[in-house]
Amino acid sequence: MDEKPKIFIVEDEKHIARFLQLDLEKEGFETAIEKNGKRAYERIIQEKYDLVLLDVMLPEMDGMEICKRVRQISDIPIIMLTARDEVKDKVEGLELGADDYVTKPFAFEEVLARIRGILRRRNEEPRQEENRLIVGGVILYPDRYEVRVNGEFIELTHKEFELLQYLVENKPNVLSRDQILQKVWGYDFFGNTNVVDVYISYLRSKIDDKFNEKHIKTIRGVGYACRD
Ligand code: CA
Questions:
Q1: What are phi and psi of 139, to 5 degrees?
Q2: What is the structure's pLDDT at 121?
Q3: What is the pLDDT of residues 180-196, one digit of tens each?
Q4: Ligand 1 centre from 33 Cα, in Å?
């Protein structure tokens, strides 16, 4: 990063936003403040920030909803500022794709340490942000073996992930069962192509059925394809 990192402070409590702003600027960051949730979401999408500090309780759209929506299209680092010391809030925030959280009341040093940690990790893996595959509301992060559907983290096995990745990489083309078997299970896999059908059904139940979408198509007599 050759310029000052830009931190977007989404916080409706004026004194907290202000104290974060002053201290962050003192540490060499650029900052912007937004107190309205809906507007904050729009600004995260339209403007360019390096990291978002995101309060949970906000007017018009809460922090959880913002996090969920942003994660559908961006993996900008997000640190949630949770007002209550509630485990539920933290878990929910992390499941929605937040990178970290800080519980109020917090010491500035704690926030600063989290920000620096996340920005350092991002700089060490600059390609991570670009390396993702998208089909409809489904986003795959091959480096992390992670899948999110409409912002929600989905647990896939290794083979399920590789199968989905292969299909998405080749969308909208059709792949035969033999091609899939060779690619995902390896040339020396001594098995039946039924294993492909079985894994396709696992993927469908975890992704298509659960979210009422239809990305994984059966092309009769040919094989399978992934489409938006
Ligand atoms: Ca608040």
A1: -120, 125
A2: 87
A3: 998 998 866 666 778 89
A4: 13
206: confidence class by pLDDT, cuts 50, 70, 90: very high
Q: Output the CA 65–ligand 1 centroid distance in Å.
A: 14
Contact 93, 64 (CB under 8 A): yes
Neighbouring residues of 210: CB distance < 8 A, sequence distance ≥ 6: 149, 154
pTM, to two decimals: 0.56
d(CA 154, CA 91): 15
CA of residue 5 to ligand 1 center, whole Å: 24
Six-digit token pair at 113?
Answer: 């340490």
Distance 10 CA to ligand 1 centre (A): 9
Q: Which residue has the higher pLDDT, 151 or 115?
A: 115
The pLDDT assigned to 1 comes to 46
